[in-house]
Amino acid sequence: MTRTLDRSRLERLLREEELRFQADHPRSLELFQRARQSMQAGVPMLWMVRWAGTCPLFVQEAHGVHFTDVDGRTYLDFCLGDTGAMTGHSPEATVRAVCEQASKGITLMLPTEDALWVGEELQRRFGLKYWQFTLTATDANRFAIRMARHITGRPRILVFNYCYHGSVDETFISLDEDGVPGPRRGNLGPPVNPLDTTKVIEFNDIPALETSLLAGDVAAVLAEPVMTNIGIIHPDPGFHKTMREITRRTGTLLIIDETHTLCTGPGGYTGQYGLQPDFLTCGKPLAGGIPIGVYGFTEAVAEAFWAKLEWEDADVGGIGGTLAGNALSIAAMRATLQNVLTPEFYERSQLLADRYEEGVVKVIQEYELPWIVKRLGFRVEYWFRAAPPRNGGEANAAVDSQLDRFMHLWALNRGILMTPFHNMALVTADASEADVDHHTQVFQEAVKALFG
Ligand SMILES: Cc1ncc(COP(=O)(O)O)c(C=O)c1O
């Protein structure tokens, strides 16, 4: 027997959880009211209006995988700044390096010796020869795209349906239910129609990839090695090998975005599975939460780029950032790579994620729910559908915002912060077995309230 969800019950439960949230967070609510006087919608960044609950929690302080809010409540944080704090909050080695560097100069527009160590370490982890720094993964993607267009002289890029690579104009395109491409819903003030800059196809669709690239107008494919932002979607066996073969044959560059897939291992999915991209982009946790983005590329890319670069124009060509490569971010990245994002960190995180996954699967089986759990490294996620999707279109069709919101709020009200907009947890080394079991229990209680 497969259970079905009673929507009126869900609505009632959601209302109850909303009231509980309000009763438990008077101080956050008070600050939120005040914040509305100086910040649009009362939040520092617009997407924060979408947090479950009446307002976002205002944070007092955070350490490891826990934080305390201004109402004195403590939370287990499985969101970890949506990967920005994947290291755990304020890792000791990073904090020490930041304090030391901050007292010796923060930004100079000149390199420090730490940059060399970092460049060599990125080379070792990801296998690409040359590295450049930005402050965000978004900028890393933007600059890789610009380089690819400059090298190939081709106008377009190709992305996969329902991808997310930061606020990169070219990527806000999607396929409708009939497979027709157009601006993605919610695309705010686009400079041009993304159809002019971008082709979009479904992930795992090799025939569409081949047809799209044979036209010879695509500078680069920009892809996560495993899709993560519409939920985890794994590549079919052989997908990456074939994509690489087609991109090479058609003279298209391949940009692999490891910003979220860094949870696979110290060298991301690329290091773990031996991918051979022309560019690799990353950001978020590399400096323990201090702003940083990186993009790496091969020797062949570097040569082709230099051959087309006018030295006098190197500072005005659309690749920039006054604070990029600043001494503080670089020192933080060195300390984080050296001491925090180590093989041991990954091993312990994987074991905890195993435990988390087993707990959730057991509850799903106990209640015979048509739900599944998806996994990438120590990223674990439950989905309200019976079979894994093969692409973004299928995944998007299964999004249940109301149920998502309920599961988030239920967890939040019981001391657990999940990653917003899907039910994803980064189960990292600083968590304890008891933390993981606490989640299993809270998840089980949510399921019981919905279906029991
Ligand atoms: C795969 C991927 N790339 C890039 C980014 C952009 O990161 P940021 O917003 O830190 O620039 C994100 C953000 O979620 C992402 O998921």
Structure notes:
There is one protein chain. The protein is of the alpha/beta class and 452 residues long. Helix content is 39%, strand content 15%. The protein has 14 helices and 16 strands. It has a seven-stranded mixed β-sheet, sandwiched between helices. A four-stranded mixed β-sheet has the order 1-2-3-15. Strand 13 and strand 14 (379-383) form a beta hairpin. Helix 3 (92-102) runs antiparallel to helix 10 (327-339), helix 4 crosses helix 10 and helix 6 (206-214) packs parallel to helix 7. 45% of the residues are buried. Bound molecules: pyridoxal-5'-phosphate (PLP).
TL;DR of this structure?
With 452 residues, this protein is α/β, with parallel strands linked by helices.
Structural topology:
Elements (H helix, E strand, L loop, with lengths): L6 H18 L1 H10 L23 E5 L2 E4 L4 E4 L14 H11 L11 H13 L3 E5 L2 H16 L3 E5 L12 E3 L5 E3 L14 E4 L4 H9 L3 E6 L15 H11 L3 E5 L10 H6 L5 E4 L10 E5 L1 H9 L19 H13 L3 H24 L5 E5 L2 E5 L8 H6 L3 H13 L2 E2 L5 E4 L6 H19 L1
Parallel strand pairs: 3-15, 5-8, 5-9, 9-10, 10-11
Antiparallel strand pairs: 1-2, 2-3, 4-12, 6-7, 11-12, 13-14, 14-16
Helix pairs in contact: 1-13, 3-10, 4-10, 6-7, 11-14
Bound molecules: pyridoxal-5'-phosphate.
Pyridoxal-5'-phosphate (PLP) binds next to helix 5.
Keywords:
452 residues, alpha/beta, seven-stranded mixed sheet, four-stranded mixed sheet, 16 strands, binds pyridoxal-5'-phosphate
